[in-house]
Amino acid sequence: MRNENGKKLEPVERLVIDIPENFIGIIMETIGSRRGEMLKMSNHGSGRVRLDFKIPSRGLIGLRSQLLTDTRGTALIHSIFEGWMEYGGDMALRPTGALVADRPGLSTAYALWGLQERGELFIGPTIEVYEGMVVGENSREQDMEVNVTKEKKLTNMRSSSADEAIRLIPHRNSAWSRPSNSSPTTSSSKSPQNPSACARKSCSTASARAAGRKSAPARKPQASAFQTRSNARIRAATACRRR
User: Fold this and answer.
1) Distance from C-alpha of 100 to C-alpha of 116, rounded to nearest angstrom
2) Residue 108: which of 73, 78, 148, 72 has the closest Cα?
3) CA distance 96 to 119
4) Within this chain, do residues 107 and 82 fall inside the same structural domain, yes or no?
5) How do 133-138 and 119-121 pair as beta strands?
6) pLDDT tens digits in sequence order for the chain, 243 residues long
7) Sign of CA dihedral 198, 123, 74, 29
């Protein structure tokens, strides 16, 4: 951003998108939500359309991956700096929420297998997570706190193929060159070991739960009925030996 004659200016770019004709509607909706303005549309009768837009540079953040997803990988995208324009105001927030870890620990394949239907995951199994870490992108608008460290309960009756049924969808490696649609006002980078990891700045529910655990008095472990009976038998046998 820069100021000229008392006006706040921002960089603007010329965006050229080449797509099949049946994806014009979704492209217009996506670019419009990022304050893009269409300048020209060219249709050469080959089944593909070329669209020219003028869009703020900040509107290009995370746009390439979204357009490739919307057009099933058939879009050709190119942009070049064109000049400066008056600041257009704040843009709409991210359309999707985040999956946030509610406790620290190591992620398990069993927990991720149950969460992959909620949205797109950013981590795989055996990854060390911390409380408040963004581990995925929710398919809905709200943020959701999830437990990625949940382990499968062991029972006496187990089939030989029970563990073979877990099939994980490959997670997305969110590098800095491919930013996600997370809003900068709700998430921030935190882990130096994992550049793609980010955490919510305000974890009200998680912080309240953590504060409650710290303030709650420690409970003494209670012995089970089996342990009580066993201890009574041991004391009786010891008394008999002494007699």
Assistant:
1) 13
2) 148
3) 9
4) no
5) antiparallel
6) 888 888 899 999 999 999 999 999 999 999 988 889 999 999 888 889 999 999 999 999 888 988 998 898 999 999 999 999 888 888 776 677 889 999 999 999 889 988 888 888 999 898 999 999 999 988 887 888 999 999 887 766 655 555 556 778 777 775 433 444 444 444 444 443 444 455 655 455 555 555 555 555 555 555 555 566 666 667 776 666 666
7) negative
Count the domains in the chain.
2
Q: Tell me: do 67 and 174 sit in the same domain.
A: no
In the chain, what are the helix, strand and coil shares in percent, each to the nearest 5? 25, 30, 45
Q: CA 20, CA 67: separation in Å to the nearest integer?
A: 12
- 64 and 149 in one domain? no
- What is the residue whose two structure tokens read 């002494």? 242
Which pair of tokens denotes residue 20? Answer: 């099949």
CB 152 within 8 A of CB 111: no
Same domain, 157 and 195: yes
Backbone angles phi, psi at 150, to 5 degrees: -65, 130
Which of these, 172, 186, 181, lies nearest to 61 by C-alpha position? 181
Task: Quote the pTM value.
Answer: 0.50
3 — phi, psi (to 5°)? Answer: -110, 135
Handedness of CA 148, 154, 155, 161 (dihedral sign): positive
Q: Are strands 98-101 and 144-146 parallel, antiparallel or unpaired?
A: parallel
